[in-house]
Amino acid sequence: MSGQPTFAVAGGFLGAAGGTGKTGIAIAGIPFDIATTNRPGARFGPEAIRRASKMLVDGDHPTLRRDLTKGLTDAGDFAIALGDVPASLALIEQQAAQFAHLVTLGGDHSIALPLLRALRKRLGGPLGLVHFDAHVDTWPDSFGQPYGHGSCFYHAINEGLVDPRRMIQIGIRSPVQTDVLDWTLSQGVTIVSAQDVHERGIEAVAAQIRQTVGEAPSYLSFDIDALDPAFAPGTGTPEIGGLATWQAQALLRRLGGLNFAGMDMVEVAPAYDHAELTALAAATLVYEYLALRT
Amino acid sequence: MSGQPTFAVAGGFLGAAGGTGKTGIAIAGIPFDIATTNRPGARFGPEAIRRASKMLVDGDHPTLRRDLTKGLTDAGDFAIALGDVPASLALIEQQAAQFAHLVTLGGDHSIALPLLRALRKRLGGPLGLVHFDAHVDTWPDSFGQPYGHGSCFYHAINEGLVDPRRMIQIGIRSPVQTDVLDWTLSQGVTIVSAQDVHERGIEAVAAQIRQTVGEAPSYLSFDIDALDPAFAPGTGTPEIGGLATWQAQALLRRLGGLNFAGMDMVEVAPAYDHAELTALAAATLVYEYLALRT
Amino acid sequence: MSGQPTFAVAGGFLGAAGGTGKTGIAIAGIPFDIATTNRPGARFGPEAIRRASKMLVDGDHPTLRRDLTKGLTDAGDFAIALGDVPASLALIEQQAAQFAHLVTLGGDHSIALPLLRALRKRLGGPLGLVHFDAHVDTWPDSFGQPYGHGSCFYHAINEGLVDPRRMIQIGIRSPVQTDVLDWTLSQGVTIVSAQDVHERGIEAVAAQIRQTVGEAPSYLSFDIDALDPAFAPGTGTPEIGGLATWQAQALLRRLGGLNFAGMDMVEVAPAYDHAELTALAAATLVYEYLALRT
Amino acid sequence: MSGQPTFAVAGGFLGAAGGTGKTGIAIAGIPFDIATTNRPGARFGPEAIRRASKMLVDGDHPTLRRDLTKGLTDAGDFAIALGDVPASLALIEQQAAQFAHLVTLGGDHSIALPLLRALRKRLGGPLGLVHFDAHVDTWPDSFGQPYGHGSCFYHAINEGLVDPRRMIQIGIRSPVQTDVLDWTLSQGVTIVSAQDVHERGIEAVAAQIRQTVGEAPSYLSFDIDALDPAFAPGTGTPEIGGLATWQAQALLRRLGGLNFAGMDMVEVAPAYDHAELTALAAATLVYEYLALRT
Amino acid sequence: MSGQPTFAVAGGFLGAAGGTGKTGIAIAGIPFDIATTNRPGARFGPEAIRRASKMLVDGDHPTLRRDLTKGLTDAGDFAIALGDVPASLALIEQQAAQFAHLVTLGGDHSIALPLLRALRKRLGGPLGLVHFDAHVDTWPDSFGQPYGHGSCFYHAINEGLVDPRRMIQIGIRSPVQTDVLDWTLSQGVTIVSAQDVHERGIEAVAAQIRQTVGEAPSYLSFDIDALDPAFAPGTGTPEIGGLATWQAQALLRRLGGLNFAGMDMVEVAPAYDHAELTALAAATLVYEYLALRT
Amino acid sequence: MSGQPTFAVAGGFLGAAGGTGKTGIAIAGIPFDIATTNRPGARFGPEAIRRASKMLVDGDHPTLRRDLTKGLTDAGDFAIALGDVPASLALIEQQAAQFAHLVTLGGDHSIALPLLRALRKRLGGPLGLVHFDAHVDTWPDSFGQPYGHGSCFYHAINEGLVDPRRMIQIGIRSPVQTDVLDWTLSQGVTIVSAQDVHERGIEAVAAQIRQTVGEAPSYLSFDIDALDPAFAPGTGTPEIGGLATWQAQALLRRLGGLNFAGMDMVEVAPAYDHAELTALAAATLVYEYLALRT
């Protein structure tokens, strides 16, 4: 066996043509999912999200009133080292370094670590982080594995890739060891639970995000399980009580003017999806990010 | 509980017996879906909605406290010209003209045009329109096809079937060409986005509907994709961020006293449904319409 | 994260070991579903809920900050008389009598009756009842069957197992014969419709529950169809317009200090579930109950 | 092709009109499934089989070259006593007694017993039996229940409804207690395992069926789990290694001239079906039976 | 709306690069399905077949021992006139005329007609035809529509596109009007039913195909419903009793040396597929065709 | 029928109690799947196979006429090093070494390597191998990974764990690089393609297996994709044209008297299964193995 694994063949997000990504915003898929701790299958995320994105091609963004497909490129899928976590993370960092402004389609959340490493190098300092998720992802290990999908931000904080005082997590609600939670808070991270979003409302949470992150360069990391499993069944570690898609859209649309340097959309596992619900949610939320940047 | 259990109820919608529809309210199916632009399959909508409606047979409407199955008839499915859009629209108009008060189960949204043509003739003037949808459906064409499911209200406005100043669209959120949107607004149509419903609330939107439509004869056209795909996955052109079923119910229940002359429930595509979720939503929303009329 | 990954956790609910249930809180499954009136299949509920609960094993409850898996036992499934409703109800009552504090995984809602009979005997007086459901379940019969899943609380009231003035139903929204509804209200039962929850909000409804039930011993009966079918498709008699999982969680978390003597989680029918959505919702809501009791 | 397309055909099985069944062949559904021992849901079998049968309406039988929809009537569904096995069996026998030649759509296999009781009374003597199944269905009890779906032929033999020497079972392959198997053989029943069909071939088995049953009045009881689960996933107690649909068709087509007095098609559980595979198989095999009788 | 409909975006069969198809073998998708008479959805066939074909990329054909991905091109999807059957057929013919050797992925079977028209013009005489299908597809009309998916070969014979004496149909088994069947036979067409394949065996049928078609230029038209629905559930008009995939492969592998001028693979409707079963079958059978031609 | 109904059977595989496996036959699950090259998810195989096995508990094996549940133990799931292939293989070997006679439920096929390493050590010499699979699994690497699921027997041969002249592969049919195929044959391995099984028949192939493997200690490795995807959709790398379940059963039942020292059942990926088809096939084939050993 040689070349790309069978599940990694190209096609363009929003119909975008290929490109090197040296300028402008580029999409890339990262079909990597062996750092998951429960249901796998996010390796098929890039293909599913690209396919679902085709439904958004015809027309302008409804509130921005602009065609978001113009000028976008899709660099295809990153090479990974099949079956080898550390080697894959190294490969991802190396490839990410080539891009001017990268939006990735995962893949599991472990990919955020090498993506942030590459950005940190390019920008010369730690980033702010807007992190949508059901889980804090600051576990020091993942059932003995250092770089599992629940540990990416433990390392990102420890490696100085993100500034925890400019880091906000939205949608958090899973069981979590109390010492992990306390460590995260002690670093200065702001945690907004899903119940907070439901009860405090969109305006208050959006203001808190803007205030926490500020105007310095930031990164958007969106784990699709921030959404409730009713809206995103196709994921590996679902938790009930999550966000509706309208809430995620409403929050993102209020983040205009923030200085985002990149985004990832992770943990879409199509084998558990139905009627492309999850893939369409992921594609549309990336589309909302593009609306912020165009 | 009495009679046959719900899984063994015979007859049409809500167990209704057949009839000519010359008097009273009659249900009819229109298994027509070749004017769709994405996922087809709404031809199976009438069958699925009728079946799901059986779950509603046992008991009275919970707030109206009346049995809605009394006096209702189900005329079966309309004949269509399989594979021929213009001939089918003509057939639909012709058959619809026979009914005193028709509630149709689609089928794709293109059927609204001949239904409105028939009503316009009967009533002698343009109708008000309460239009639930994710899409404006005022495209001047449909990938080159004049009568696609996204163009029905472009024609309805141009043909004077509806009065655009008495027309309100609720749930709108899809990408749309800016010139299509601007044309629609310039005709006087009121557009309430799904985000508006989420953020402004039920009372405000219900009041706006009542005010826009007024007391003259109106029509209710309900595209099931007004609902969020979490609540209605079984449809052809889903868009995230849509209405919850409770919101649609809450709005409909506040429309009592409006002068509705007919209704359609369209775009239920059962092949993409799960556990009859979408068909049950469609059946129940028709049931709420009947509660307004009984 | 430590121990076995969630997909390889052994044991019962939340990985609990077996036990007699003579002390502490014990889980038991009741795979009984022949008293259903529409879609059957809740006999597979206990297995599905236990399996989904494994996803909750790794970590403490996020707001309670305590490990709920400690000290819990799982007594396995109750014996039933396959195909015989009265004999099964007798067997269930007999087995339930052995437990100090029983949390059952149904099965259909008819099991609540013998569970309440056993509790009534143990406690010597009628219980308060917090009842989540789409249906009032106070029909005097079930298509001719005295002990169907829609009649359990008719009997519970008539037999003096619950005190109807300390009984509150949340999420009600199905069609219902007006005389059944009126009988229920005339007994003193408080009914909170799903629309009430949506429009009046969590705080108001939680206060009403606390006030209605008071501090005397109570029981929690949770029919999963209280949730909207988007959040819980895997059930037998779904009704649109129901609760979101976050609402159910938010309500339960406000019931701390009530004097619950037991709980059932019923009507999970896995054959209609998708991606374990419904089973996970059921497992997590039982988990929230445990958080109230630990 | 003429008339309504298959997806819009009205009426009962094969589009048949209603009727009393006093003359000719009549279809009836029996939505009864509480005597199942594993997956329930066959109560939805009649509805699913009727719907799938619509695909067979357009054209003549391909080898018989005759239109099988002529003269057929569909009497709708039998009333049952929901939740009560003995009362339901009594009701079924009573209703079946009204029919000249009845073909029933189950429902679980327990319905065969009252159907045979009714036929035995009408004909005045025991019947021959062609029985397709994965299971012998001669268990003396069903987990303590006397009339479960695995015991129908134990009673049929003991009550003298069928002549075991004129009884042949085809497709048998499930685990079975050796004493149950030996009792069955000792009564004179002929058992043809699924492996026998695969290895001995159609001609040999068809000849054995004809020889065993002879020319006296007989009954055809077809449990859909005689088919392999690849061909009929939608059933309650699947067993691998079963018949392909072509084998069942090939066998049935060789039974012309036998004197069949009735048929049942049982154990179709649509909740486990996919793409209507199982329902279509059931409908087509009933269609093949009609081809033998028309 | 303009440009290609959303469901028609490119990607390469077996990973093939794009190309004009002026030389060599080229793949093209034809996402056209409005001439179907039952379940629609074959418009998504090209996308699904291409995706499933990726599983076949790694390695040589197991018996031919050659890499079939070399030199193949994929021209993407044909333009169609959405919603207009005659205009679409004209467009398909026009585009097909540009190719040296075209293998198309449908789409419904109506596309075979314009494809044969284009080939007939190129070759100057009628073609032989190897036609796998459950249906004869020689109906003179399709519920009133002249060019439905069940009429393509009626026209192909009448227009002299194929030589009916060099035409063989394999897998036939649906109900069919006797006059349609007789007309087909009277034209000289050879019909091999699915039961014939099961009972006469591969060698005999393969020999009959070779003998009927001979060495002059021929065409292979493969309707996926020639396969049994257990092997190909994802199609619009399934019929039980069909071919296993191994039988189709075994037959195709014995057709080496025939002079095929083109192929179509039609009627894959992914909405009814499961685990990509049908799409993989379609992709692999196209792969077997390529093995005959390389 | 006695005891708990099949849907409420407690315990492990076939309801077996736990045990150390020091004597007798023991079942163990190995929830490891990160060495897959296409669809992942076999980590859920052990759970699914155990659950499906409950359907086989009630009764004796139909031809062996013995109760196979007696004396069997289930040791639960092996610990693995989540996310680390080499460390997991080492852990598996270490745990396997503790068992007298181990039957494992995978997991992907890479687990066969450490299982054979442990057996080789115990037995002191290379084993014979009966290997059911669609793929030869003798690739020297797996997209760069040395121990992927397609390379297990390359290493097993090179490490002298199996004797390639006593090794037979049944069901082979995937594309494969010609040099990989030639290397395999050159080692002396016997390859029986799926087409061979279909065309040469059960008796001939069973004889060839017996003759190839002989009477010395052997191992049975069963990749569920040896079965056709119609019979086993729930797997990662399906290939059409495979074995029917009856063929696999018929072959296994003819292997009595062979000296099997262990078995694995691998590559069941429940996320792609339907109605437990694949899990039931896997469970039943393990059951057939137990019938050979009891």
Q: Report mean pLDDT of chain A, rounded to a whole number.
A: 94
Secondary-structure-derived class of chain A: alpha/beta
Reading the helices and strands of chain A in chain order gives EHEHEHEHEHEHHEHEH
Major sheet of chain A, described briefly? Answer: 8 strands, parallel
Please bin the fraction of helical residues of chain A.
25-40%
| CATH level-two architecture of chain A | 3-Layer(aba) Sandwich
Oligomer: homohexamer
Q: How much strand content do the residues of chain A show?
A: 15-25%
Largest interface comes to: A-C, 39 and 35 residues
Shape of chain A: globular
CATH level-3 fold name of chain A? Arginase, Chain A
Weakly predicted, low-confidence segments of chain A = 6-10
SS element count, helices of chain A? 9
Structure commentary:
The structure is a homohexamer of 294-residue chains. With 294 residues, chain A is α/β, with parallel strands linked by helices. Chain A has a single domain (6-293), classed as Ureohydrolase domain (Arginase, Chain A, 3-Layer(aba) Sandwich), CATH 3.40.800. In chain A, 32% of the residues lie in helices and 17% in strands. Chain A contains 9 helices and 8 strands. Chain A has helices at 45-53, 85-96, 112-123, 152-158, 178-186, 194-200, 202-213, 245-253, 277-293; strands at residues 25-30, 73-77, 101-106, 127-132, 162-172, 190-193, 218-223, 260-266. An 8-stranded parallel β-sheet of chain A has the order 2-1-3-8-7-4-5-6, with helices on both faces. In chain A, strand 5, helix 5 (178-186) and strand 6 form a beta-alpha-beta unit. The longest helix of chain A is centred in the last third of the chain and has 17 residues, at 277-293. The first copy, chain A, is globular and about 50 Å long. Chain A starts with 24 loop residues before the first strand and ends with a helix. Mean pLDDT of chain A is 94; it is low at 6-10. The A-E interface holds A 1-3, 6-7, 9-12, 15, 47, 51, 54-55, 57-59 and E 1-3, 6-7, 9-12, 15, 47, 51, 54-55, 57-59.
